[in-house]
């Protein structure tokens, strides 16, 4: 089978770079931080071979897609607009939307608010979470010595300075520390960031990487962030309270389309009450077909366990295709 093809399309006022492969029903793949279209490299080929048209964009602020400067250009409504605009640019009426990490909320809310355009949803690592009464930033863990990683990301230029000091070391260490192969506790600083030492404190990767992540993979990600920096991706986190305000009118609206959720049982990038969210997922996603928990898998589900993820995704897609 041929490799993915690449092009740039105009979407929601920005230029978006996409990788695409295959023909058939559209499956839109949304990545998170610190990733790009490349995090779906294993899924593009598998979905195409299974008879689907797989499209993986560099999301807003990443890779070869435009990176608006203003923080308020990265709200959830901008990201949903990008998803709908991309479906329009691809010339189809509907798609199945898939999201990992920060791409997860994009996928869940796209399917929730626009079921006419997204006929099903697959979430990886990030489950759908219902709107809380309190602003998100006010309930995130905070101690005298540590703070939740999303709080650490709030102040512009702080996390950028740390991550951009050595982009290659940053992505290499983040991927390893949040993987299923890292010793238990290794990724703790990625969740609760020490006041002294920063996000990457204690997250150093070994000389030999896990089999699923090659030095060439790290080189690709590093070259992207070397060129773009990390500001675009970090700006997504700087809108968490603004997103809470923007979505207030839709607080009680469930996800009504068919859904699949996949996660690793060693995912350290959790958030408060994660177990409760997963256990109650069907209350808010009534057509949830299955929750797949991958034993020994960390945060990078589709990269760490491509075969299992591909099988689950394709089985789900064929169940209603």
Secondary structure elements and their pairing?
Elements: E1 5-11, E2 14-21, E3 26-30, H1 41-49, E4 53-57, H2 76-89, E5 95-100, H3 103-113, E6 118-124, H4 136-139, E7 146-148, H5 149-152, H6 158-163, H7 167-177, H8 188-191, E8 192-194, H9 215-228, H10 231-237, H11 240-246, E9 259-264, H12 274-279, H13 281-284, E10 288-294, H14 301-304, H15 306-320
Parallel strand pairs: 3-4, 3-5, 5-6, 6-9, 9-10
Antiparallel strand pairs: 1-2, 2-4, 7-8
Structural write-up:
It is a single chain. The protein is α/β, with parallel strands linked by helices and 321 residues long. It has one domain: Rossmann fold (3-Layer(aba) Sandwich), CATH 3.40.50.1820. It has 15 helices and 10 strands. It has an 8-stranded mixed beta sheet with strand order 1-2-4-3-5-6-9-10. Strands 7-8 form a two-stranded antiparallel sheet. Strand 3, helix 1 and strand 4 form a beta-alpha-beta unit. Helix 2 packs across helix 3.
Give the structure's gist in a few sentences:
The chain is of the alpha/beta class. The protein is built from 15 helices and ten strands. The strands form two sheets. Strands 1-2-4-3-5-6-9-10 form an eight-stranded mixed sheet.
> What is the count of β-strands?
10
Classification by helices and strands: alpha/beta
Helix count? 15
pLDDT averaged residue by residue: 94
CATH C-level class: Alpha Beta
Query: From the alpha-carbon coordinates, what is the Rg to the nearest angstrom?
Result: 18 Å
Distance between the termini: 22 Å
Mind telling me the CATH superfamily name? Alpha/Beta hydrolase fold, catalytic domain
Helix-strand sequence: EEEHEHEHEHEHHHHEHHHEHHEHH
Count of structural domains: 1
Side by side, the strands of the main sheet go 1-2-4-3-5-6-9-10
CATH architecture grouping: 3-Layer(aba) Sandwich
Query: How would a crystallographer describe the biggest sheet?
Result: 8 strands, mixed
Q: What low-confidence regions span 5 or more consecutive residues with pLDDT below 50? A: none
Instruction: Choose one word for the global shape.
Output: globular
Helicity, as a percent range: 25-40%
The proportion of residues in beta strands is: 15-25%
Can you tell me the CATH topology?
Rossmann fold
């Amino acid at each position: 089978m041929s490799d993915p093809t690449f092009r740039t399309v105009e979407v929601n006022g920005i230029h978006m770079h996409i990788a695409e492969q295959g023909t058939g029903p559209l499956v839109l793949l949304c990545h998170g931080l610190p990733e790009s279209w490349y995090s779906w490299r294993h899924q593009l080929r598998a979905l195409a071979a299974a008879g689907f048209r797989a499209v993986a964009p560099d999301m807003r602020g990443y890779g070869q897609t435009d990176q608006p400067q203003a923080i308020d250009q990265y709200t959830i409504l901008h990201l949903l607009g990008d998803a709908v605009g991309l479906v329009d640019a691809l010339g189809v009426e509907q798609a199945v939307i898939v999201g990992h990490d920060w791409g997860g909320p994009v996928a869940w809310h796209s399917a929730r608010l626009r079921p006419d355009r997204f006929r099903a949803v697959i979430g990886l690592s990030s489950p759908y979470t219902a709107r809380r009464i309190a602003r998100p930033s006010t309930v995130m863990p905070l101690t005298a010595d540590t703070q939740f990683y999303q709080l650490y990301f709030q102040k512009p230029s702080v996390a950028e300075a740390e991550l951009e000091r050595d982009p290659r070391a940053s992505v290499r260490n983040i991927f390893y520390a949040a993987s299923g192969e890292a010793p238990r506790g290794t990724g703790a600083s990625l969740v609760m960031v020490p006041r002294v030492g920063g996000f990457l404190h204690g997250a150093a990767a070994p000389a030999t990487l896990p089999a699923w992540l090659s030095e060439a993979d790290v080189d690709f990600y590093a070259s992207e962030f070397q060129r773009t920096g990390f500001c675009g991706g970090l700006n997504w986190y700087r809108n968490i309270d603004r997103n809470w305000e923007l979505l207030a009118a839709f607080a009680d609206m469930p996800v009504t389309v068919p859904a699949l959720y996949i996660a690793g049982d060693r995912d350290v990038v959790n958030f408060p009450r994660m177990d409760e969210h997963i256990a109650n997922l069907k209350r808010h996603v009534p057509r949830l077909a299955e929750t797949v928990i991958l034993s020994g898998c960390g945060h990078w589900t589709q990269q760490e366990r491509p075969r299992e993820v591909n099988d689950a995704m394709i089985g789900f897609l064929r169940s209603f295709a």
